[in-house]
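=== RUN LOG ===
request id: a7f3
mode: sequence -> structure
chains: 1
length: 86
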Amino acid sequence: MKLKANQSGLALGSLFGVMHLLWVLAVAIGIADELMAVCQKAHFVSTSVTIGEFSYLTAFWGLIGAFVVGYIIALVFTLFYRKCCK
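=== RESULT ===
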């Protein structure tokens, strides 16, 4: 099976984007604080975290950035995999 760099990039970029979209929605509807508290308790962590105000511009660029980073990670992995694992 040959991995396709573009398809891998789109898949991982979309996954990263969807994960960030869920977080943006949690911040927008005001449940992000509770989610952070649950995550911290589940991992035996105790820190003070402050969730900032919701901003459409920050949300937009965060989603774009998450997609791009996911795409690049998958692209690099695919090229590395092709080179090493022939």
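=== NOTES ===
The CA atoms of residues 17 and 67 lie 5 Å apart.
Residues 5-84 form one domain.
=== END ===
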